[in-house]
Automatic annotation (TrEMBL):
Annotated PANTHER family: CYANOCOBALAMIN REDUCTASE _ ALKYLCOBALAMIN DEALKYLASE, METHYLMALONIC ACIDURIA AND HOMOCYSTINURIA TYPE C PROTEIN
UniProt keyword annotations, A-Z: Cobalamin, Cobalt, Cytoplasm, FAD, Flavoprotein, FMN, NADP, Oxidoreductase
Gene from which the chain derives: MMACHC
Lineage: Eukaryota, Metazoa, Chordata, Craniata, Vertebrata
Official protein name in the record: Cyanocobalamin reductase / alkylcobalamin dealkylase
A GO cellular component entry from the record: cytoplasm
Cited Pfam families: MMACHC
Catalysed transformations (reactions): apo-[alkylcobalamin reductase] + adenosylcob(III)alamin + glutathione = S-adenosylglutathione + cob(I)alamin-[alkylcobalamin reductase] + H(+); apo-[alkylcobalamin reductase] + an R-cob(III)alamin + glutathione = cob(I)alamin-[alkylcobalamin reductase] + an S-substituted glutathione + H(+); apo-[alkylcobalamin reductase] + methylcob(III)alamin + glutathione = S-methyl glutathione + cob(I)alamin-[alkylcobalamin reductase] + H(+); 2 cob(II)alamin-[cyanocobalamin reductase] + 2 hydrogen cyanide + NADP(+) = 2 cyanocob(III)alamin + 2 apo-[cyanocobalamin reductase] + NADPH + H(+)
Source superkingdom: Eukaryota
Record-listed E.C. numbers: 1.16.1.6, 2.5.1.151
Species of provenance: Esox lucius (Northern pike)
Length: 269
């Protein structure tokens, strides 16, 4: 029996509308666009015309989705990354609400295959979908780094680097034709000198401490931006993952039992 199908308009309409209220953006693509720029071992095993969508989070996601998610959970402990749990919760819920009965394979940016490779290459998916430009070593003519490894980074035309790529949705059994045309992502950093600065800021400008190990984030402001992270959001992401549960407790989003209070008190003596 054939699987239920969805349309490109469904993805752009119902799905985008529901997720945008929570601070997410959705960009449709075809699996063939993704596979065309990667070697066969990295291909996704769907027909080329299979409809998919990449999901980005914007700065407003923190206040519109993440903090309400924490409030509604009433957590006593953090088992896995709270941001990952938040994204999974909302994406899974909205996909099931918008497309009941439709088979949608959802992969998240943090998920790995048994081979320890990511389930999908998030920056590649976002680039071929026309959402953001993925600047890499090869995008700099006469690059100055020789054989030094340089990791690439995506820049959003309105948000610069103040966003994250969160998920890939594949609508199994839905193949689309000419109704979905590929468009190139906006080249927001066209000058060679600015591309060098972008990649060097992204690769080299880190600060490391006992509770912090993050970039200085200057790469995010390589272009003028419409939004940035709020001060509270910056504080959260500037805190090392192992210390974030204590920050959430300070903010009042995590509670703990009496026994846990005693254990921590003893530990600190």
């Amino acid at each position: 029996m054939a699987l239920p199908r969805v349309s490109v308009d469904d993805v752009r309409g119902a799905l985008s509308s529901s997720l945008s209220k929570l601070g997410f953006e959705v960009y449709p693509l075809k699996i063939g666009w993704y596979n065309a720029v990667l070697s066969p071992p990295l291909h996704l095993s769907y027909p080329d015309d299979t409809l998919a969508a990449v999901v980005l989070s914007t700065p407003t996601m923190f206040e519109q989705a993440f903090l309400p998610f924490l409030e509604n959970r009433g957590w006593k402990e953090v088992i896995t990354d709270p941001i990952d749990q938040c994204v999974r919760h909302y994406v899974n819920y909205i996909v099931s609400e918008c497309f009941p009965g439709v088979k949608v394979d959802v992969s998240y940016d943090y998920e790995m295959l048994p081979s320890r490779k990511p389930k999908f290459l998030a920056q590649t998916a976002a680039h071929v979908a026309g959402a953001v430009y993925y600047y890499q070593h090869a995008d700099v003519p006469d690059q100055p780094w020789g054989n030094k490894k340089m990791f690439g980074v995506c820049i959003h035309p309105q948000l610069g680097g103040w966003f994250a790529i969160r998920a890939l949705l594949v609508f199994v059994g839905t193949e689309v034709g000419s109704e979905l045309q590929q468009t190139a992502p906006p080249d927001s950093v066209p000058r060679r000198e600015d591309r060098i600065q972008l990649l060097e800021n992204f690769n080299f400008r880190w600060r490391v401490g006992l509770t912090q190990c993050i970039m200085d984030w200057s790469y995010r402001d390589i272009i003028p931006v419409a939004q940035t992270y709020s001060q509270r959001q910056r504080e959260y992401f500037s805190t090392s993952p192992g210390q974030r549960q204590y920050l959430l407790r300070d903010w009042g989003y995590l509670t703990r039992g009496e026994e846990e209070d005693k254990q921590e008190s003893l530990h600190r003596k």
